[in-house]
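Students often ask what a 'structure token' actually looks like in practice. Rather than answer in the abstract, let us consider LIM and SH3 domain protein 1, a protein of 232 residues. Its sequence is given first.
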Amino acid sequence: MNPMCGRCNLVVYPTEKVNCLDKYWHKGCFSCEVCKMTLNMKNYKGFEKRPYCNAHYPKTNFTAVADTPENLRLKQQSKIQSTVLYKEDFEKNKGRGFSVVTDTPELQRLKKTQDQISNIKYHEEFEKRKGEAPHHQPSNPSPAYQQPAASQNFHYEPAPEPVRPAAAAPPPSAGKRYRAVYDYSAADEDEVSFVDGDLIVDVQQIDEGWMYGRVDRTGQQGMLPANYVEAI
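Now compare that with the structural description of the same chain:
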């Protein structure tokens, strides 16, 4: 069955059929809705399933919203709300410019090791000054003179980074001797390297896993793992 024309509503035969805009048209009926100019598939423009030429194609106009008192009130209220939210967010984030450093187990171990090394160096300096004290004392020493010297000896600050203790004189608790049972290569600047069979002297226990001592073969002083040596 042949379809009906979209304009004249008459039967459209295949030889004169134009299929466009979801409808069938006679070639002569496929024309502009305004000026009736005959169109083809290349120059037509469709609007609401009706053909138009380029000159009479309906223009889309934007709808203007009037500044009514209600719209002005809503606009002002939105602006005030945005300002309030900005101030709340500013107050909430104020003072958060610093970075928080996570206190990881590794940082705790390094901090504890640094404190232990600083304590060892303090004892060494204290023993040195105690031995040199008679040379600097006046002929008639008095308690009033000794007090500033004692205060000066006990005032120290932790080292900013792990430092290998000086090899001049061992601390009072030194004297333990260990022998290496494995090879070990230093992983940090405050550690020492040794090989199996090396003699470790002036050893002090830092914690369950670390010691501080001097490798007798190389003269290096520093931290070493406790499970790599055995007591002699």
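One point worth highlighting: The CA atoms of residues 70 and 76 lie 10 Å apart. Ask yourself how you might have guessed this from the sequence alone, and why that guess would often be unreliable.
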